[in-house]
Write a structure and sequence with these properties.
Layout: H1 3-17, E1 36-42, E2 45-49, E3 60-61, E4 71-75, E5 78-83, E6 87-88, E7 91-92, E8 98-104, E9 108-115, E10 118-125, E11 143-150
Antiparallel strand pairs: 1-2, 2-3, 4-5, 6-7, 8-9, 9-10, 10-11
Amino acid sequence: MGVKSWFVVVYCVVLALLPCQGEGSAPVAGFRPPAVPLINWDPYMNIYSFSDKLTDSWPVLWTGTVKAFVGMLRIDGVAYRFMGPQSQDGGTLPDPMDQISVKVYPTQTEYIFSKAGVQLTLTFTTPKIAESTYDYISRPITYLQYKSRQIINNIQ
């Protein structure tokens, strides 16, 4: 076996082992990417949050163009903001929810917020496209899933 053949064998073994490290793996503790992916459709349409908290700044395209998403949740008649900054052009938005965590997975980003006895889980999911279904790449889809639940005296 020549050097090229050994290289091909090693390359194939490495490729075979890569999926074991990806999806389903637990996030690395303390890991904070420089940009948190929210919507990832194709190389020209990716929207990220560059802030530590989703309520600190507007989400932006990779070019820096602002894409102003605002998310609010009403709890017992009081509105709270979980996405978007406090004010824009002189207007004001409700007080922010407390961001508990953010976890980034290969195809999902999950935020957890808490305020007024309610926990909100917000998950952005961009489905993985199988290599044999390239025709689906023209269907830009990102799912936004939310779950809320009541928290009583820090008992979840």
